[in-house]
Amino acid sequence: MIYAHRGYAAKEPEMTWASYRAAIDWAERTGQPLGLECDVHYSGDGHLICLHDLTVDRTSTSHGRAYDRSLAELRILDFGSWRTRRPSPDQRRLITLAELIELTAVARARGVDVSLAIETKHPNPRGTEVEDGVAALLEPYGWTTLGSPVRIISFSLPGLERAGELMPEVPRTFLIEKDFGDWWDGRLPEGITTVGPDYELLLQEPDYLARALERGHGIDVWNPNTPQEVTWCLDRGVTGITTDDPAMAARTIARWSKRHSGIA
């Protein structure tokens, strides 16, 4: 499975309307199943926004904490100029989770095989209210039950536990970045069957992959962004790739599959 990290971040400013539209357009053009990865937390007035950082410093032309601003205030910021000269309105504009869910639903209705990987950001000022808000937005679409085109991902065990209470049939992924800690032996928290390790961490501890796979767990690695990095992951049995460049990942997977099936 390929996940478009923060939308099509290799081509467009991350987690903007343009980034997610580019990812959906690519999936529609190619017929490739694609997960749309996003990070969510609250604006100051209680809207779930798609923004990796808790501040707007890195990805906008302004400064300060996102959760100190209303959605209306965030909407007038330019989230595109850091990546591209003269950004279009869609390249400048922040997207909310509600808008991304609707964009995904509309695409699915016309037959595009896209899904969502929603990362709940922790720590944040409102704790697991983020998971409550995610569930509330998904419920009207019927996406909180078995068969939902949604995966909840997080570094936070309390967050994943809350998601499991609210949406027990929706799959969850435990993200790991700096070290495997208590989970070095391949175990995962109860009810979670997929781990999302950082690619750089796997380079340091490649034996972890075999331990996790022996326990029957899925491994969705982030963020391999070159053919060599994707190939390294495929050679070791990963089940998902979260990448800034889904087209590169798809080409690399296709070449890898041909080699291993004996097709010239």
Characterization of this structure:
With 264 residues, the chain is α/β, with parallel strands linked by helices. It is built from 10 helices and 9 strands. The chain has helices at 17-30, 71-75, 89-92, 97-109, 129-138, 157-166, 199-204, 207-214, 227-235, 246-261, and strands at residues 2-4, 34-42, 48-50, 114-120, 150-154, 172-176, 194-197, 218-222, 240-243. An 8-stranded parallel barrel has the order 1-2-4-5-6-7-8-9, surrounded by 6 helices. Helix 1 (17-30) runs parallel beside helix 4, helix 5 runs parallel beside helix 6 (157-166) and helix 9 packs across helix 10. The chain starts with a strand and ends with a helix. The mean pLDDT is 97.
Q: Label the structural class.
A: alpha/beta
Estimate percent helicity: 25-40%
Strand/helix succession: EHEEHHHEHEHEEHHEHEH
Q: Major beta sheet, specifics?
A: 8 strands, parallel, barrel
Q: Reading side by side through the largest sheet, how are the strands ordered? A: 1-2-4-5-6-7-8-9
Number of helices: 10
Strand content: 15-25%
User: What would you report as the Rg, rounded to the nearest angstrom?
Assistant: 18 Å
Shape: globular
